[in-house]
Amino acid sequence: MVSRRLLLGSASAAMLSRASSAQAAYPNRPIRLICPYPAGGATDVLTRILADGLRERLGQPVVVENRSGAGGNIGVDAVAKSAPDGYVLGTAPVGNFVINPFLYRDMPYDPVRDLTAVSLTWEVPNVAVVSGKFVPARTMEEFIQWGRRKPGGVVYGTSGVGTSAHLCSELLFKRAGIPCTHIPFRSAAQVIPAMLAGDVDFAIDNLASYAGIIQQGQMTALGMTTAARWPTMPDIPTLAEAGVPDFVVTAWSALIGPAGLPDGIQQRLATAVREVAANETVRQRFLTAGGQALSTTPAQARARMDRERPMWREMVEISGARME
């Protein structure tokens, strides 16, 4: 009996040792990184920069896979339903954690129950822009006055109902007393041509999507939703400086895995994100693309989600948006 117990004990120890070794060896094969938004948009561009950095630090291919639709819910749900082994991960913007649960009547996943937030990865300001060819305003104050006088109000475009762009726009127009009409597109890549054609008057969306077109001089930037001026575009005022007080709203994203992701894998990934964010070359790539590299512990990532949930819930209610 004693020998049998010793044998079983040795077998159990061996199994734990092998499991520990397997986890310690993570990763030992390619990782899929699901981007829940279309190719070419802000989330896609920044996800690919992150993937490049993770690839170098993890020593394995990190393959970006775009699975868009339903406000990012399709891609994030694919992560939530994957095996918790660290080989299927995703990037999830703020909307997939603290906006969509208040926006959609039926959510395919519960962000608290079904996901592991490994680390925040980047933060993106929203920038208010108009087409210089079709809108005469060159400052936010001029735009507000123009918008109030415009017959039928302002037509604005966003990358979708319930996005941070949509909620920020509704909040801005409500505060400014400007009548408005919302035209949702699939992505900022579709909004931009509509603005340049004069079909849309205004957009307030992620700087990452609009930085290039602003630098080319085809659009006028009226203000940033940040507390301080953005380092790569210091000539653009904050909205507070432009005459819209108490309007600091940024969009952040997180590296996610399914619930049950082992602590060792979480820490390995969080460390890799921290190293990516600390690399000056990578930081500059993020800034050039319109984002600011971030890194946190899993607990810090979850704390920010919990802290901002009431604010975004209120913004959804103000917008009146609802999705099936």
TrEMBL record:
* Source organism superkingdom: Bacteria
InterPro entries reported in the protein's UniProt record:
BUG, Bug_dom1
Give the range the annotation lists for the signal sequence. 1-24
Q: Does the keyword Cell cycle apply?
A: no
Q: Does the keyword Lyase apply?
A: no
Q: Which UniProt keywords apply?
A: Signal
Listed PANTHER family: BLR1237 PROTEIN (PTHR42928:SF5), TRICARBOXYLATE-BINDING PROTEIN (PTHR42928)
- Similarity section: Belongs to the UPF0065 (bug) family.
Q: What is this protein called?
A: Bug family tripartite tricarboxylate transporter substrate binding protein
Natural source organism: Teichococcus globiformis
